Amino acid sequence: AQKITQTQPGMFVQEKEAVTLDCTYDTSDPSYGLFWYKQPSSGEMIFLIYQGSYDQQNATEGRYSLNFQKARKSANLVISASQLGDSAMYFCAMREGDGGAQKLVFGQGTRLTINP
Amino acid sequence: SAVISQKPSRDICQRGTSLTIQCQVDSQVTMMFWYRQQPGQSLTLIATANQGSEATYESGFVIDKFPISRPNLTFSTLTVSNMSPEDSSIYLCSVSKWSGYTFGSGTRLTVV
After folding, report:
1. Residue range A83-108, pLDDT digits in tens
2. Which burial class, exposed, middle or buried, applies to A92 when counting CB atoms under 10 A from its CB (0-12, 13-18, 19+)?
3. A105 vs B45: CB contact, 8 Å cut-off?
């Protein structure tokens, strides 16, 4: 079974609008971390935001926020006031367990296109 | 977070040859991870490399095809052996530091 599911292969949004990218996950481990990465056409992976399973509040980083609904096992990324430079692939990823020895598992990704 | 230097950034290789990708980290890390990203696809973990021990390979990846070296806590190499066009992908190394994961800039490999 898929551990991380991103159901939107592509999204098209007008500049300055807010956009929500969906991510659902599946784990039985009570301790886990959820990550969002941006991958522009250059191929680099740019870290955007992190949410720990025990975090009480939704994570925010500038224009990025994470809508974490633990009971529904969803961790949607919200980008406010989208910009042309936000056009890229976006990946949701999960780490199960604690510490840095755990691998990241990635979703299929969503290609976001911002239209002027 | 750690800074990773990954080389080469891209290469075009003949089928049947091998390519070695290097990742140098600016600080000591316990684990290094190697991922493959096939065209239009997501990242798939190839193996986890721990210093001083054999790498741990994910299902579908074997040491003969993807040998990994981890001589110290700041360096690792991944070799793609006996390449075929199906190996054309982006290969990325990654490390974990302070619960975050940093990626190298990637190696874009084309096999002709």
Report:
1. 999 999 999 999 987 665 688 999 99
2. buried
3. yes
